[in-house]
Amino acid sequence: MSADTNKFVIPIGPQHPALKEPANFEFWVDGETVTGASVRLGYVHRGIEKGAEARTWVQNLYLMERICGICSHVHATAYTLGVEKLAGVEAPPRAQAIRQIMGELERIHSHMLWLGVAAHEGGFDSLFMYSWRDRETVMDLLEKISGNKVHYSANLLGGVKFDITPELAAEIHKGLEFLDERNRFYLKVVNQDETFIGRTRGIGTMTAERANFLGAIGPTARASGVAHDIRVDAPYLKYSEFPIKVETHTSGDLHGRFIVRINETFESIRVIREILDHLPPGELTARMPRRIPAGEAISRVEAPRGELLYFVASNGSDKPERVKVRTPSLCNWSTVLSLAIGLKLADMPMLLTGIDPCFSCNDRSVSVKRGTQDSSMWSWEKLRQYGIEYYR
Amino acid sequence: MPIGTMMSDLVRSLFKKPATELYPYVKKPAPARLRGKLTWNPEKCTGCQLCIKDCPSNAIDLVTIDKAAKQFVMRYHIDHCIYCAQCVVSCRFGCLALSNVDWELAIGNKEPLGIFYGKEENIARLMEQIANPGVEQPATPE
Amino acid sequence: MNLSLHPILVLLIFPGGLFLLASGLIYQWADRKLIARFQNRVGPRFIQPLADTVKLLAKEEIIPTGVHKGLFLVLPVIALAAALTAGLYVPMFGFQPASSFRGDLIVALYALSVLTLTMGLAGANTISRFSLIGATRTLTQLFSYEAPFLLTLLGPAIAAGTWQISKINDYAGQNIWLMIAQPIGFAVSLIGLMGKLELPPFDAPEAETEIVAGAMTEYSGRGYALFRLGKDVELVIGLTLVATFYLGGLANPLQFVIKTLALLLVLALLQTAFARLRIDQTVGFWWRAGALLAVVQLIAILLGRYFTTVF
Amino acid sequence: MVAQTLDSSWQGVLAKVKNWARINSPWAIHFNSGSCNGCDIQILATLTPRYDVERFGIKLQGSPRHADVLICTGPVTMQARDALLRTYEQMPDPKFVIAVGSCGLSGGVFHGCYNIVGGINELLPVDVFVPGCPPRPEGIIYGVAVLLGALKSGKRPEPIQWSGTGLDGVLHTGSKLEDHHG
Amino acid sequence: MASTIGALGAVEAVLEPLAVSFNRPQPERLDAVIRPDDLLTAVRTMVNESWGFLSAIVGLDHPAPAPVEGEAEVEGSIEVLYTFCKGAAIAILRTTLPYSQAVLPTISGLLPAAMLYEWELREMFGVEVIGLPVTGHLILADDWPDGLYPLRKSFVGFNGEEKSQ
User: Fold this and answer.
1) Domain-located, residue E161
2) CATH code for position E130
3) Do A58 and B5 touch (CB under 8 A)?
């Protein structure tokens, strides 16, 4: 079945049921095995960094939040931390604790969402239905606290918008119990179900050196044993007071990534309980000037998919000079496209969701285009060969 | 390596009541803090326009009918609004609030998505001004 | 219970056309409802499959470019026709099959395979890459489950000593349930049925997340409706076949309904319990597990008969 | 061809049956034209047990050929524009469009960014607008209900009146916002 | 905090011969100003020291200030920040390129992941990266006019004015 030469190009996307978001993947296929892969993003590139330069600091908070729907709070937190560093303002302890709780709740929500989507791509619809039904609990909690299930807009420059009252804390505890028990069940399913393991074990295996070499970060790297986690390396907010344990796994394949993400959910549940028990008292917001003094600041936070870096520069006016966002999915891109070689076409959706790519996250910046072998175009093959030679 | 570890949960849910909320027929009350449609209290408003400056998506316009007597008409664009409650935080006089009752906002055509808030007589004057622009013009809406 | 109806009536109304289509729709609803209930959902209403079919028939039919127009239109009709003819040889609703002759088991199975073949051909006919991949998967899967499924249906035929479905039905009615006599045969035939109907975990051919809708990507409106009807009728016929062979025959309508719905319950449970197998895994599974078990079962039956006849 | 020969009473019945079928089995396809995927996960959430739109007959289809309703999100980025148009053209008639989320209606928070077209209705004839950022899953189901209601009555969905001036719903945040509305 | 100071001290010592000047705007951050043609050697030393990983390449556009009649016409410049992170310590290599001579050697030979960041730099700021093997548009639309770099201050949107307050 070869349309041209022995390669057979399968375009997946931009509109494809497997992808929640548009991206155009092209897989060079020989029968059922993939021999080459390329991606063309840009479908979700809205020009946010340019838009940020035309908006005031307060408005940008909500623009940054809408970069990605699944990790909206962590973008806003990184942005506010950067701006507060510039303005020399420190959010009050209670606000920092509430930000950390919202961040961890969002991590649970993001990981359970990913568990469902990855299972759905592997054709395991009942796990998708069950994990998303249970995820509604954490969405309800977030809605009770903030008023919106996805964009909580919890952050203000210099603090937090709303408080966590004792009744809410009790409800959170109850919700966390249910989530804890359900995730234990999912860990058992992921670990034992024969057909599921058949679809995930050995897919996209990546050794620790290769992960470092390709620059993978977040759960994708931690599944290969690379213990990078900004919450431990460079603690921000209250992570020094309420630390977390880095979850790693050694298998490095898709199956390991499932396990790492579910273990991280348990870790998040433990941290939230700990914070709720000793929620520091005090104010919710600190005074924040409308014009931010000139300067540059870098803030790094741990998004559900890996390290998120914000570079914020101000020229003293009420509009930022430059806001650069480098999102975690961007780093994981190079791993997927080089791991795809040699796998089955049927595993492509599973492999792609393995890194839990968030196109709207990284679409503001980068993709890799692969072309034919002629001079100017560098094919992914060549990069891979280059990587191997360089590494030897 | 047992096959179908989900089996126990599946069979149990066959006899359990389905977890579906029959939405349009059974409407559960929304949580208290739900951020729905904006509501505006014309009495307290002093026309300081801080909410307009802070709104990330230009959802609020204020038409001043009569500056001295603090009579204003607010034009609120439901399709622009992103329901973030920044205006509620910015307004020092507390005349803005996001309702937790009005969140079923789906609609067939776009005109009614820009609704007017304010006292009846102000809206009436504004309407008749829009109808025939030749007549004496209040401050044109931003 | 034999029906002496006018052959045209038999062909068009009762066990043949309309009734078969109606039962196909009802069983599709039952299948979707059971899957939904297993997934803790409410699931579709009773009239859903009928509404789907009527809506599809009322939709505009788009004939894509680069496609053999005649073949594109004819294939769905052949698919449904094949499914309906297979329905004539099967004891629908507990009554005697509309027509039965020696060897009608082979004809019925052949007719069902024609349905799958037409789907594969429909996929290959268009230029859309997704349907090409879907077509190859449909055909590879056809070759993998066909042999074990046939072998497992051979078991009871040998036990009954005839190739005629109605006679096997009577034989199964008198003796103990063949499910107990040939347990392996029953298990493999059930899984074979899931392979034939391309139900998950064997739904690689129209894996919604990988290749959009597989062979059916290019079809819309009437063509797609006929293919879906063909699939539903195939579901009913498959269930009745396995029920007649392994669950002690279908003497009256009540037995028909109970046994087929029981089988459907088991099928629905199996569908929701597993992740979709990759096409190479399905083929591997079939040739390693399916075929071997079926052959073992056959040898057991032959030995069993040999010893009973000798002593 | 069949319709012409039938006289008007039969056509009336046929039209009624077709309309009934369309209302009871609206198959949907979801297209994200540059959205932050907040609305998309809410759309996917409507399929899950808690909301389960399959009870209305709504099934998410893979191919545009099998779908009647295009549920579209996002402010239509330049790159996604022709992909969106191609998907819309591939859908057989009669087809409807539901724009979900403030981005889909007016570009929402991304207004003015250089790479977006703005609302979806600048490209496609939109039948139902579902405001919200993102709208609640129930809000999306309400949007579909508005579409089906319009189909039943045969004309465009008519606008509904809200309580324009009331202060009924108040934002309780248990923080300094609270004492604003004492 | 001690390890970060130690790390910054180490990197400062290593970059001593190459850097024009050092600056510590934040306790955990070190800025080293590097001449464009020393960049490749600086990155090579960082990689040989295996000091952290390249976290991002940030472009900053400094347009030409309004010309004062007295002085000569000053040309605008693009500043490129190579951000390396190791634990909590951040080291940034800053190079400034005038508009007319906005050319940089690619470092994707040393760090393949950098190819992704450089490509965005080229598309958004128009910095010519020699040796970057890939062509064509990245995230901008295929029909994006050539020579138009969106993140430069000179670009103010298609319809001429940025629609905002």
Assistant:
1) no
2) 3.30.460.80
3) no
